[in-house]
Amino acid sequence: MECCGKTSATSSTWAGSPLRVRCSGALTPLPGPSRVAQLPSLRPWWAQKVGWCKGTMQEIRRVGSTQHPSESLGRIARAGAALLGRRRCWASRHACAALSGRTTALSLDALVAAKNSREEKMLTSLWASISLLVDLLRKRPIYESVALGSLVAWSRLRMAHFQAYLDLQQSLPQALAPEDKVRLCGLLYALPYAKAIYGEPMHRGHMDSVTTVTTGLLQRLRTPSYDPFLSPDARTNVSAMLALSGRSEADLLHVHFNTSALRPAHAVLLDHEVGAIVLAIRGTLSPHDALRDAMATEAMDEGVGHEDGGFHEGMLQAAKWVADVVLPVLDRANQEYPTYRLVITGHSLGAGVAAILTLLLDAQSRQVAAASSGAGDGIGSVTQGVARLSVPRIDCYAFACPGVVSAAVSSSPHALRCVTSVACRMDIIPRLCCRSIDELMTELSGKTAASSIAEAFGSVASSVKASFSSQAQALLRPAIVAQRGLAPGLAADGAAARESPWARHRTVGHCFWIPDPDQGVILRAEPKHFDRIMVNESMMADHLLSRYEIGLRLATVGLTAGLPALPS
């Protein structure tokens, strides 16, 4: 809560407990809810919420008369963000104003600037997400958009994708090569850190299964004052993180749990037993993380070492911000422990940011090495930090890494050397990008009942007179061909052969695939094997990190968690 240029944090509980307001580390009791009616400066939470809703609706109605649509959308978004961003509490601003003398001294200009910066980033992310969704639907024919509601189409598509899943499982070799075993040991080593960065929700078991996740979401709806995923404070999350990773507080060099737009939660820890500096980046857990995921437009960036490569815009910006924040920390740790390697890991969103950050640091390190030998000069603000960072090795272990880079970058020599990715069964996230969604909608439109009838009539016509099969198909399916923009040839499963207008983004590096977590088998794959979204009832459950842990543990029996040997 902000008042008179000061800042105070409030916390409240329900019936019977007094209110406590935290000011400069001291806890001051205030009257409980039973005495709220006696104090004119305090109001119950429902009265405040009603007032906020009324104010927001008045703002939206006032905006509706604005002549400029872009300005209207921006003001509506700001009003909605203001409504969602408020937290209910028993103390009003007038009550907190009396405590301003004991609050932490912050200038009003600094508070206003920080708030405006957060709102600007949120609006930018929201506008990019809305624009992407509108473009994705606007470029689709109406026929394909209607197919989204066809249960017959979804059922047929599921059967076709399950057969494709079986074919892929039979075509890929098992990961039995020595290099594969070394990378699998690295995945086992990084797994506890990828789990630990989720903090208290992971420690409490809220993310172990679909049931626990659903229970946590329902608890959020029943008691909005407590969110099992977002309510734990930083100290609670840090304690849970240290417990899950097996580290002590002395090993913690840096931590950031106060997430906002394009600023993911992350932590830097030391592992003296192995000799590593570990940077763990958290996956999607808050609405800010979801907006970052939705900023899936392609961005070009020469600073990553691939001038012709494309990157996921939201995760590229998040990776650059993480680099700017952690480079001073990594620099101090590198000076104190020059023989320690750098390990970067994450799950889901954290895996995508970790993969791009690894490519960024690797590219900048190579540029710095070239500059020190007189071949060139470093570029960018990030390079100045990397110039002091000379770790002997950088490794990234990405769990369920989404499609964040173009095809040329995903299998480049630098990505194959530094990044190890793993996907589980039909997990949708490693297969997710704008192009794969576009192709899924096109494929779905080919599974509707109307398309099936057209296919049947086309088959009958071709069997009656094969020489006129192409003319018969053109007469029987003109609407479908014209609206979908298909090429003359159509795949047997109904997939369109036309080129999608969206860029292809893939997962990164040396890839493994767990076809079934309960089988104890892990296969060697490539990024191109995850270009197609596979529709299945387990496509979301397979994304849980617990599923990855079960599959890795069973598939690596006899292997010990560890990191590859350093070059001599």
From TrEMBL:
Any single GO BP term: diacylglycerol catabolic process
Alphabetical list of Gene3D superfamilies matching this protein: alpha/beta hydrolase (3.40.50.1820)
Compartment(s) of residence: Cell membrane
Keywords (A to Z) from UniProt: Calcium, Cell membrane, Hydrolase, Lipid degradation, Lipid metabolism, Membrane, Metal-binding, Phosphoprotein, Transmembrane, Transmembrane helix
Topology of the protein relative to the lipid bilayer: Multi-pass membrane protein
Pfam family membership, one: Lipase_3
Residue span, Fungal lipase-type domain: 278-433
EC annotation from Swiss-Prot or TrEMBL: 3.1.1.116
Cofactor: Ca(2+)
Glycosyltransferase is among the record's keywords: no
Main localization (coarse): membrane
Superkingdom of the source species: Eukaryota
GO cellular component, one term: plasma membrane
Name of the protein described by the UniProt record: sn-1-specific diacylglycerol lipase
UniProt organism field: Polarella glacialis (Dinoflagellate)
